[in-house]
Amino acid sequence: MLKSLDLHPSKFYQWKGREGKENQHNGIQPKDFWLTEAERHAVIEYYQSHRREGYRAVTYMMIDEDIAYMSSSSVYRILSGAGLMRTKSIKKSKKGNGFEQPLQAHEHWHTDISYVKVNKRFYFFIGVLDGYSRCLLHWEIRESMNEQDAEIVVKRALEKYPQARPRIITDNGSQYTGQEFKKFIAFHGLTHVRTSPYYPQSNGKIERFHFTLKAGTIRPQVPLSVEDARRVVSQYVEYYNNTRLHSAIGFIAPMDKLMGNDVIIVQERKTKLADAKARRLELFAEAS
Q1: Do 256 and 268 touch, CB atoms closer than 8 A?
Q2: CATH assignment of the domain containing 179
Q3: What percent of the residues of the chain are helix, what percent strand, and what percent coil, each to the nearest 5?
Q4: What is the C-alpha to C-alpha distance for residues 250 and 74, in angstroms, rounded to an integer?
Q5: End-to-end Cα distance, the chain
Q6: Residue 118, domain extent
Q7: φ, ψ for residue 207 (rounded to 5)?
Q8: What is the mean pLDDT of each run of 10 residues along the chain (288 residues)?
Q9: Where is the Integrase catalytic domain (predicted)?
Q10: Which of 271, 144, 219 shows the shortest CA–CA distance to 153?
């Protein structure tokens, strides 16, 4: 009989030995029906007012704001059932491939220059981003992008964090390959790493910030002067560093990651989730 069922005898006797016993080989699995209608309604209502955020970010935002407590998979099922999920093609991530990621703040600083068009004129956004926390440490919108401009922005970031001695990661732009920048790096006791030629993804952390900045601020708000551009960028950087949950660092705000508050935040989330699960179990037991 076992041969006809393609079942190994040892597996059969394992099953037979568990006959009549409580099923203990699997842990307790969460059940969708533990979620109350009020919780489902709260998730849908919150997501409708935060449509620009992904469902994972919304999950942790709701936990932090004490709106609802559940896993991201539960949030996905609720939103999908309500027809609110956006579909998109998924490409294989290349994050971290061939590059040693920093293990603490101020170990890697990424800097780069991006064009910013303001009222038919191009200016230059130069920023310094911490690779561990994704926090933007310093930025400026300047009228030129020569070697001196790049040095000034990095120097002002160092003035904010005088104890930092990071590895400066740049592309191969002329601002970062000249003798003056090399002297600047040596004078401040730093190390400098340039990315592979014709491969800007090597400096992808700040490249990604540039994309987010332009999509979230410059293009939709259309500043009419450089002063206006600096104002809207300043507001966005404040939001980005202190409020926006970053998916690459476990849905923690970059400034919290930089300051080491992420451990406390993660523990608070786990406590809230455990408490919510216990309350649902009690409600389920009472209903049974």
Answers
A1: no
A2: 3.30.420.10
A3: 50, 15, 35
A4: 18
A5: 40
A6: 108-244
A7: -60, -40
A8: 86 80 58 76 91 89 92 90 72 55 92 90 94 95 92 95 93 90 92 77 84 86 90 94 93 95 94 90 80
A9: 98-262
A10: 144
Tokens of 65: 């704001």
Same-domain check for residues 67 and 161: no
- Kindly state the tokens that stand for 46: 């919150």
Residue with tokens 């079942």: 7
d(CA 62, CA 77): 16
Q: Are residues 222 and 271 in the same domain?
A: no
In angstroms, the CA 5 to CA 238 distance is 64
Given a contact cutoff of 8 angstroms between Cβ atoms, the answer to whether 122 and 94 are in contact is no
How many domains does one find in the chain?
A: 2
For residues 220 and 196, what is the distance between their CA atoms, to the nearest angstrom?
A: 33
At a CB cut-off of 8 Å and minimum separation 6, what does 51 contact? none
**Gap between the Cα atoms of 188 and 152, Å rounded:** 13
Rounded CA separation 159/155 (Å): 6
Give 192's strand partners: 168
Contact by Cβ (8 Å): 168, 127:
no
Token representation of residue 272: 């809230």
Q: Can you name the residues that pair with 129 across neighbouring β-strands?
A: 110, 136
Q: Which residues contact 141 (CB under 8 A, 6 or more apart)?
A: 116, 123, 124, 125, 126, 226, 229, 230, 233
